[in-house]
Design a protein that fits this description.
Keywords: Repeat, TPR repeat. This is Tetratricopeptide repeat (TPR)-like superfamily protein. Helices cover 52% and strands 12% of the residues. It is built from eleven helices and seven strands. Strands 1, 2, 3, 4, 5, 6 and 7 form a seven-stranded antiparallel sheet that branches. A hairpin with a 2-residue loop joins strand 5 and strand 6.
Length: 354
């Protein structure tokens, strides 16, 4: 039968068209079940062309009579084609069909269910959840819809958390965690504004370490120095010293400490900041011990930051974990440096600031 040329005015002669309609649907369903979604979509499209709004097909009473038939079943063909388009990842077409099916039958929960599935594939989880909730209103007993709502609720939470983690990874602000150091330096140095340079030095060192950890899962064992702008012989003394071998044994640890302490003197350094990943420290394992030395920060990986100056010493541990597939540094934890120091004091103690 050539449907495109079938212009019928007599309703009785229209029985063949209904049979053809049913045949298209059945064939489309078979192709859909076998995974041939392209052929299924084509057959559903042929059926949809029988829509009474197609004025090349119907005239007079045939159109009005067929409209009642189409109104009862037309939305199903469009819904089925939406399902085929979804499998073909033609998501915009699938969404348009799902919305048309809802327009044709606003109380049929499957239309909203199909719309929700398409929106889920688009990763529009909030919109998908809204569609599934309407579907559930029309069929409160549907376990399939309830499962989707539960899944989408969790996906929405996960997506929000991924965004939060990414925001935390990109918006690194160590200064807000160092108020105690800021107040202490300000009090020690008084009217001398040089404390601001030292504070900025600590903040920048910590932020660079966190950024490196987020990007590469590691930081290099190093000591960073604040050199004297006038006295330091910059051709002899660099602002950074690698210490990756310092923690292999008590001997390497002691040798490194002696070297760094003399380096601080000879380079006229005002302050220093040590950064050392926990993973490279064989000695001293400051996270092991009992009593006052007992470690209270779990088994997390991470790195130590130790600030040294003639007037102040501070120690932090920055824990690291993996969340939502991303490496994330937690807020720095203040440690008791008299108990957990990674290196002994590098600068001689000054009784008064000169």
């Amino acid at each position: 039968m050539n449907i495109d040329k079938c212009l019928v005015s007599d309703f009785d002669k229209y029985a063949g068209l209904y049979a053809y309609h049913s045949c298209l649907k059945d064939q489309g369903n078979e192709f859909f079940k076998s995974g041939n979604y392209l052929k299924a979509a084509a057959l559903y499209t042929q059926a949809i062309k029988l829509d009474p709004s197609n004025h090349t097909l119907y005239r007079n009473g045939a159109k009005s009579r067929h409209f009642e038939y189409w109104k009862d079943i037309g939305y199903m063909y469009i819904h089925n084609r939406a399902a085929a388009f979804l499998h073909l990842v033609k998501l915009n077409k699938a969404l348009a069909d799902a919305e048309t099916a809802i327009t044709l039958n606003p109380v049929w929960e499957k239309g909203y269910f199909r719309k929700g599935c398409v929106l889920e594939a688009m990763e529009r989880y909030d919109d998908a959840l809204a569609a599934f909730q309407i579907a559930l209103q029309h069929n409160p007993q549907s376990s399939e819809v309830s499962k989707k709502i539960k899944r989408l609720t969790q996906l929405a939470k996960d997506k929000k958390r991924v965004q939060e983690v990414e925001t935390m990874r990109s918006n690194i602000d160590m200064a807000k965690h160092l108020d105690e150091l800021k107040s202490e330096l300000s009090e020690i140095y008084g009217a001398d504004e040089s404390w601001k340079e030292i504070f900025s030095f600590v903040v920048e060192t910590m932020e660079a370490a966190v950024k490196s950890w987020h990007e590469t899962s590691k930081v290099d064992g190093r000591v960073y120095f604040v050199l004297d702008k006038e006295k330091t012989e910059t051709d002899k003394y660099a602002p950074v010293v690698n210490i990756d071998k310092a923690f292999e044994s008590p001997h390497t640890h002691s040798s490194c400490f002696e070297f760094l302490r003399q380096y601080a003197v000879d380079s006229y350094s005002h302050a220093a900041c040590l950064v050392a990943p926990k993973s490279i420290i064989s000695y001293p394992q400051v996270w092991k011990g009992q009593g006052s030395r007992k470690w209270k920060h779990g088994q997390d990986d991470g790195f130590f930051v130790q600030f040294e100056s003639p007037f102040s010493r501070k120690l932090w541990f920055v824990p690291s974990s993996t969340e939502k597939g991303q490496i994330l540094c937690s807020d720095p934890v203040v440690l008791d440096i008299s108990v957990h120091e990674v290196l002994p004091r590098l600068f001689k103690v000054h009784g008064d600031h000169q």
